Amino acid sequence: MKIKRIRALADVQFDLEEGDSFYEFQSPGLGQYFRDSLLADFQSLFLYAGIHSKRYGFYRMHANRFPYAIYYQIQGDDVIIVAVLDMRQNPSRTRSRLHSRR
Description:
- The chain is α+β, with helices and mostly antiparallel strands.
- The protein is built from 3 helices and 5 strands; from the N terminus they run βααββββα.
- α1 (10-26) crosses α2 (30-48).
């Protein structure tokens, strides 16, 4: 499968800001590292989109450096990132947040 474009829903920006704020509070500079790491994970979808298992109707890729999951779908030769969620939260919260993004 040849992916030509990766797009993210507007809510993904909120997810990234939420994680950035959390980690920045833990240690100055860690928030930016979180964001940079997730953006690198997004780029890896050009090579690996579609190989991940599905959860709640979306492909789920685990972030490399943080306990987050990237939920995405494939439409034609595009990847649409629908959510970036903390894996330590209650699964019912994850399910409801993903359900609202369909």
